[in-house]
Amino acid sequence: xxxxxxxxxxxxxxxxxxxxxxxxxxxxxxxxxxxxxxxxxxxxxxxxxxxxxxxxxxxxxxxxxxxxxxxxxxxxxxxxxxxxxxxxxxxxxxxxxxxxxxxxxxxxxxxxxxxxxxxxxxxxxxxxxxxxxxxxxxxxxxxxxxxxxxxxxxxxxxxxxxxxxxxxxxxxxxxxxxxxxxxxxxxxxxxxxxxxxxxxxxxxxxxxxxxxxxxxxxxxxxxxxxxxxxxxxxxxxxxxxxxxxxxxxxxxxxxxxxxxxxxxxxxxxxxxxxxxxxxxxxxxxxxxxx
Amino acid sequence: xxxxxxxxxxxxxxxxxxxxxxxxxxxxxxxxxxxxxxxxxxxxxxxxxxxxxxxxxxxxxxxxxxxxxxxxxxxxxxxxxxxxxxxxxxxxxxxxxxxxxxxxxxxxxxxxxxxxxxxxxxxxxxxxxxxxxxxxxxxxxxxxxxxxxxxxxxxxxxxxxxxxxxxxxxxxxxxxxxxxxxxxxxxxxxxxxxxxxxxxxxxxxxxxxxxxxxxxxxxxxxxxxxxxxxxxxxxxxxxxxxxxxxxxxxxxxxxxxxxxxxxxxxxxxxxxxxxxxxxxxxxxxxxxxx
Amino acid sequence: xxxxxxxxxxxxxxxxxxxxxxxxxxxxxxxxxxxxxxxxxxxxxxxxxxxxxxxxxxxxxxxxxxxxxxxxxxxxxxxxxxxxxxxxxxxxxxxxxxxxxxxxxxxxxxxxxxxxxxxxxxxxxxxxxxxxxxxxxxxxxxxxxxxxxxxxxxxxxxxxxxxxxxxxxxxxxxxxxxxxxxxxxxxxxxxxxxxxxxxxxxxxxxxxxxxxxxxxxxxxxxxxxxxxxxxxxxxxxxxxxxxxxxxxxxxxxxxxxxxxxxxxxxxxxxxxxxxxxxxxxxxxxxxxxx
Lengths: 290, 290, 290
Hints:
3 copies of one chain form a homotrimer.
Chain A lengths: L1 H12 L6 H15 L4 H7 L1 H22 L11 H16 L4 H6 L2 H29 L4 H13 L1 H12 L14 H17 L7 H22 L7 H25 L9 H21 L2
C-alpha cells in the first residue's frame, strides 16, 4: 500500500494550481466581492475601483505576506498571467450579459466545487508562505507561522483595511474577538506545516499536504451542506484553553457565584476583576455547551 | 523643422526641476495645506505637526511610490536640499509678517504661473516613477503604470491617510467613486509613458515629455481660468466605457424603463440588479449630458 | 576624577538591557495594556488577540522603526529569547492566580523602580535607532533623528493604529496637537544623540548616554512622585517658539486687542487670520503662565 500512497501524495503535491484551482479561487473571491452592498453600482460607476477591489480580494494574502516581509506589495502585479486570469474572471462576473455567471454560481453543486478547489489553493498558499519566510529567516518558526497564516488567510485583513479607508466599514471592538473559521484552520495548518518544516513532525511534506487538504475540503463542504459554522474546533479550543488558562477560569466562575451582591461594595480593584472576568467566563461556559 | 524641434524638446527634457519648478510645486502644496480648516492654528500650536503635514503634501507622491516598492518611506528626508527648500516655503507661507505670501498668492496670475509650473513637475514625477519601477521589475508594465501614477498623483492618498489618522476626515463611500481630475490625467500619462518605455509607442521620450507637459499645462490653466472642472475627459471616458461595457449599459437602461412598477415584486435577484444598476446608468447618462 | 568617571560611564554604556531592564519595560507595557478597558475580557475570550496587543506594546517602537526603514516588520519575532520573556510577562500579568502581579505593581515603589528601569531602555533604543539609520543612510541626520525618535517613543503610534483598526479609538483632531511628554523628551534625546554622532557635540557617546539616562530617570520619577506632568519643558518650548515665531505671536496678540468688535466686518482673509491666530496666541500665553 505504501508505494501507491506515496505516488498519490507526491503527484498531488506537484499539481499546479494554474489554471483550474486558481480560477475557482478567483471566482469565489470575486463573487464574495459582488455580494457586498453597492459593489455592482461601483463596477458601473468606477470600473477601475471595482477592479482594484477584486485584485485585493484575489491576491490579498500574498500582498499581506509581502508587506510583513518588506517585499514590494506590488509584486503580485508582475505575474501577468494570473492578473489577466483574475481580471477576466472579474469582467465576466460583473459584466456578463444577463448575469449568467452569478446565476450559474447560485447553484449549490457549483458553489461546493468552487469552494473545495479554493481550499486546495489555501494549502498551497500556506506552504508557499512558509517557504518564503524561510528564505529570509532560516528556521525562525514564529515568523514562518505568521507568514504562512498571513498568506493563507490574510486576504480578509487587506480587504477590511480597504473597506475602512473607503468608509464602507466601521470596526467594532468585538469583531476582533471572534476569529473567523478559515482564519483558525489556516493558523492550525501554518503551525503544523512549520513544525513539519523544522523536522519536529515525523511526516513528509507531500503526505502532510495531502492529508491537510483532505481535512480542509471535507470541513468546508460539510459546513456548506449543513449550513453550520465553527462547531468543529470548539472542543479542541476548550481543551487547549483549559490546559493553559483553565484553573483561573474555574476560580473566577466561583468568584462570580459567591459575590453577586457585593459588586457595588469592596475595593475597586477586587470588584472590577470578577465583574470583568465573569462575562468572559460566562461566555466561555456558554460556548462549551454548544 | 526637425532639428530645431528636436533641440527644443531635448533641451526641455533636460531642464532641472530644481529650484524654480520645485519652489512652485512646494508653494502650491503648502498653500493647499494652509487653506484646510484649522491649519493655521495647528502651525501656531504645534509647528512640528504642521511641518510634518507640509512635508507629506510636498513629497507625498514619492513616499507612496517608495512604500509600493518596499523602499524606506523616509528616503525623501535624505535629500537635504529639497527638504530645506520645502521647509523654507512652509515657514514663509505660515509665518510671514502680515501674511504677505498668502496675499501675493491670492492674485490669479501668480496662481496660474505656480499651477502651470507644478504641472511640469508632474510629468517629471511620472517619468521618474516609471524609471524607478523599471529598475526593480524590468518591463513589468502594470507595475510601471502603478508606480508612475502613484508618484505623479499619489500625494492625495498619503494626505488622506494622514487626515484619517488625525480624525480630520471620515471617508465616505462615494468619494472613491469619483477619481479627481489630476488623478485621471496622471493615470493617462503613466499609461502613455509606460507604453513609450516598452517601445509600443513610436515616439521618443523627450518628444512625449514635451507634448504631455504642454497638454497638462494647457488643461490646467484653461480649467483655472474658466473655473470649469472635469469636462474635458468625459467624452473620452464615455467612449471607452461604451466600448468595454456599453452594451450591458443600454440593456440595463431598457430594463429600468420596462420595469418601473415591478420593483417590489418578482425575484430578489432580478429586481435588485436593475435597481442597483439603474442609478449607475442614470448617473452615467446624466454625466454624458453635461 | 576623570578616570573613575570614564570607567563609570563606560561600564554603564556597556550594560546589557537583558534581562532585568527588559523585564521592567515589558512589565510596564503589559500593565498599561491591562489597564485599558476590556483588556482582561479580551485576554480570556481571545488570548491570541491579547498576546498580539501585548507584543505591539512591548516592541512597537522597533516595529515602527523597521517600517520606516523598509525592514520586515516581523523582524522582532526572530529574537526568540525576548519574545519568550515578553510572552511570559504577559502570561503572568493576565493569568496569575489571585492577580498577584497587579496587586504587587499597585505599590508605588515597585512602579517607580519599573518606570525608572524602563526609561533606561529608552536611551538604549534611541541610540540603537540612530545606529540602525546610520547603517542605511550614512550621516543623514534628519533620518537618524526620525528613526531614533520612532524607536524610542514610536510604540504609542503603533498601539494607536491597532486601536484604530479595532474600533476601540476614534482619533480626535486635537489629540495630535498635544505631543505627549515621553514623545518630547525622546525627540530631544534623538536630536542630541544625532548631533553627538555627527561630531557636532564635543562629548563622548558613553558620557552622553549616562547623563541623558540620569536626566530621563530623574524627570520620570519626579513626575510620578509629584503627580505632575509636562511642566518641565514648557519654559524651554516657549523660549524656542519665541525665537522662531515669537515676533508674529506678539503681533497677532496686538491684533486681537485692537480688533475685538470688527471680527464680523472687513474682508474674510484679514479677519479670519487674527481670529484663528488669537486662540493660538491665547493658548500659548496661558501656557506661559502655568
